[in-house]
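Cont'd.
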Amino acid sequence: MSKKHEPGMAYDMKKLNVVFAFLSVLFLAVVVWVFLDDYIRPWKFVQLEAMKIKQEKLKEKLDEVKGEVNQDKLNNLKKELAAAREIVESRRQEIAEVKKEIDKVGVKLKGETIINGQLNSKVSALAFNYGVAHSKHASNAGDLFQQLRKNKALFAESKDRMKLYQSQQKSLNKKVEALRKEEINASKKIKDMTSTMNLVQKAIDSNSVSPVFVLRNLPFIDFLDPTLNIKQVVLDNITDDRYFQHVKKVDRCMTCHTFIDQPGYEDQPNPHKTHPKLDLMVGAKSHHPMKSYGCTSCHGGEGHRVNDFNAAAHIPQNDEQKKEWEKKYHWHEPHKVAHPMFKLQNTEAGCVKCHNNVEFIPQATALNEGRKLIEQYGCYGCHKIEGWTEEKRMPGPSLHKVSSKITKEFFKNWVWDPKTFNAHANMPSFFAQDNNSKKEFMIKNIAEVNAMAEVIWEKSKPYRPLAKYQGGNKEKGKELIKSVGCMSCHGVEGYEKESELVGAYAGPYLTGTGSKVDPDWLVSWLIKPDHYQEDTIMPSFRLTNKEANDIAAYLLSLKNKKFEKLRFSSMDKNARDEILLTYFSAFDTMEVAKNRLSKMSDRERTIELGHRSIGKYGCFSCHNIDGFEGRAPIGPELTKFGSKPLTQFGFGHEHDVEHSRSGWTKAHLLNPKRWDRGADKPFKDLLRMPNFYMTEEEAEAITVALLGQVGDYVPLKGVKRLNAREKFVNDGMKVINKYNCIGCHQVDGWRGDLTKMLDEDYHSGPPWLVKQGQRVQADWFHHFLDNVYPIRPWLEVRMPSYNLTNEEKNKIVAMFQHKASQDTFENLVDVVKWNPGEREAAKKLFAEYECATCHTSGFNNDEAQAPNLYLAKRRLRPSWTHDWLKNPQSFLPYTTMPNFWEDGEAQNSEILGGDVDKQVQALVKYIYEIGSDDLPNELTRYWSKN
Amino acid sequence: MKQFVNIVADPIYSFPITCVLYYYMLKYYKFFGSKKFAWTVTLIAIPVFLIMMADPNFYLIITWPDNIPITILIVAVSFFTWYSIHKAAINDTRQEEGEVPVEATPENREKVWCWPNLVYTEMFAIIAGTVFLIVWAIVFKAPLEEPANPTWAPNPAKAPWYFLGLQEMLVYFDPWMAGVVLPGVIVVGLIAIPYIDTNPKGNGYFCFNDRKFAISSFLFGWLVLWLYLIIVGTFLRGPNWTFYGPFEYWDFHKVVAEYNVNLSEFLWIKFLGTAMPSNILVREALGIVLSLGYMFGLPPLLAKTSFFKELISKIGMIRYYITIVLFLLMFSLPIKMVLRWAFSLKYIVALPEWELNL
């Protein structure tokens, strides 16, 4: 406000204008910035990149196609065309004349078309007017009728003329064509040769940055018809939970994952890579096409967000990738996303959401492995997991009669630390862990273990073994263990390599058995397991007394001297009383608690503590213990574990654990006690989940299985619902998994653990069950499961006798039947009806192919190397026998049965005219004719004596 | 050092410290208003701020897009407070020396045209403001969060920054008081100021000496009770509305020992050692009497003090009562805060039966 300014002015006007100009320019710049900021999106660059990749691919293709075109031939054709053009040129005059005529006819035709059209409309109008007049008996009805008739006639005439002109035109056109014949033919040949090439060239053009492309994608006008745009699928079957309502899932991942559903881009880096399992996922012909299932339904993450890399909640699979992403995309942990993407290695968790309730999910390798481990470690004992664990057995053996099996001393040392006795033990370690190895806690734990032993022994019922151990040949026993099939369920000391190959887990790893069990108990258990425990899954191998004693001799020779020397500390009674007082004073004062304690005898106190401790540690979740039936499992339910908000996971003070569901779960499985670190907890509040000493891989696999347990609501039409057949199959699979049938038999590709130690000599192991339901007759199968007899005489391994209920047997039979899409029974004929000459042909074939050389039983006295054909009638279905004879290797690649009709051709063309089906049919009939309905005596005896 | 700052930032310490600083700011306002002081503080503050930014937790809090306006607010308010006091100090010095305030000098009383002097420059401000807002919006994207989920509320759930002072009051008062009565009184009080304040001095020029009571009570409410609480609510309240120091990691599971007791429980259980009376009015009698006494007994008593006698003589009885009621309501907040910290006092009047807690 100095005096330099004009009167009435505080500022210099010129200066103000300069400021205004500056601000205006700044404002304009900012406005441009706004539009650019809105226009420049990361995904556009990705799509441009994709265009380049596609062009490169197309150029390769173009080169390839060009290579296919024969240049010499093409040049010749071009010469031919030039020559043809010359010829046609010489006829120019003629052609011109014909074309003139065509034009004349064209004029007439056009004129007639107009007349015809007018008449047509006139007729329609008159027809309507006449109709109205007629119905109203109007006076002009007659007139109208006359007019209508007249016009109809005119119309017909016109139509006729039109047809005439059309035919004239046609013949004239043909004339021209005939005159230009050579030229037309030559260009057609060239076109045929180069059409693919031209198509590819066209595709390249449409994928290049042309002026039209630029125009369509210019800022401001790119809303009209852009080529760079957000791609999306909207799903009808699957919804996103937006809390106040479910909305259709929208996935826009393909905006950047440009070729995810197109084969041919497998070699590209992400995001342009083709989906690695196109035949199962994403592909239009797969089970889960992108249009119906989207991407995030399985992968998790925010599929509708495309602002940048982080918006979709991508999760790196490991630290290395995390660092790479941080550098490349400024990756950071997603904020407030309920379900971020699964890590790549956890992706299979996404299957569970829809494929719940099934025993086995084909192709979900990691997930199935995780579920197998959950079975192995018996997680479901303490943690309810709805859907697939309800019908599973108790993970541990019954303790009803345990006092006759092991000693109390063994029991206590075992419970204290199972791994010192058996490094492979599935029983986890509760004590001397991260959170309870303080001396004060150890003393209390020792008191608890002592008390639990007292309770178990008090409850244990007397048991008298049915046999006495008489000693045996341990070398023979060792061989038997391997040969009869024990190792399908048990790992065995002395067979370390084989045990590792098989990876059996249904039964305990047999080591140090001699330091563990009572010899008489062992023999009688081997002979008849259900004599000791009614509901055991351990089957009888129909061992003779001698065999059982031999095996027992070997097992008893396995000793754990170090463990034998352990003496478990005796109970500190003060510690016992102290723990009891904490229990008693939970709802009462200390004085009342003390009073209550003082009224109890020494023994009563121990029993009370033992009882409470069994409840505390949840022993009853895995072992049958008297008095604990029906108690609720002690662990939290895991059915919806994968949806638990991250904030509800107790990370304690463990800041180095990755802050994610998978990070917590894995860390928890590796050491469940770690969360107590840095927390000053009283004895009663210590975390109880025991330590399974899992490997990293095991923890990772279980993590996958657990992460999949989400609570997401999936609309009914989106969930996989088993059809009638699949339902039967699934029920049966539960049974064969429970009894570990798949420990020996590979069932349509599923497991078959024992065969892994055979060095691919599958012929000497338990047979694969391929289309078993089509192979055997349902009633035979049902009967066989209870009355096992040897079918394959060359096998040492034995099909054991199980203690199956009728329901279970039915489920198994139904499973195989539906798995192979078979009817329950096949129509069998009592008396085989032969066509003329067929029987002779069958006998001839039987002799020619020397069937009796291997299938000796009943034909000669040689050693049998194949099943008894006399028994086939009762066991096999004719339709299967037919298919089997035609190509046995298609069922069992390892079978020694020769294929007599290789490549579908008969070896002997004279028999039955060389017709393959007729020859096979004849043999099948023959087998059914000689077959017997009854088992021979020696086989009947085989099972009845056991 | 960081540990120390973390502890001192807790309102229990930082509130009294702020009050003391506020007192000294006004007492030595001429020193505070000097350019030397301003430069010194700025030169110290910049490196200190940079050093603090090196701390990952502090950095995270400061750069959270929600919190950036508060940083701007701190800088802006500090500057404008200093600027007004700076001007006031100059004028007061001039007046003490018998001169007129700067604004009253003849050259400054000259009149200028509204256009372009005012309107044109206002337009500049509008354009510059728009540019600033647009650039801000582009550089710091609006922090959109996940769709609202009634079963998984964000933690901490924070109000918009300008309401964080109110939210902080909720720590000490029931919603009806902190959310309804006090904000209502603030609005009514601000409206009432021109009618209460009849002091003709200070019109059209910066000053402090001429309007000591008015300025210091307004600035107390504005700086200490409003802005200070916003700053606390923004930077120092983490998950579960628990206090976190500026350098502290927001550990979701942090636990703070807090168990508060009602005044009636103090009286009956602790002091008299008898059961609580079943009549709820008797039960809360002491609190009710104290509250009523505070609101209605205190004004006549205060009217007898020499300071207020002088005030009454200037503005009259009615204006005095309106002023003093507003004044007491304003001071109820710091009083309640101090009682909470000193005695873990929950409510002075605890009538959950009527949803009327004080």
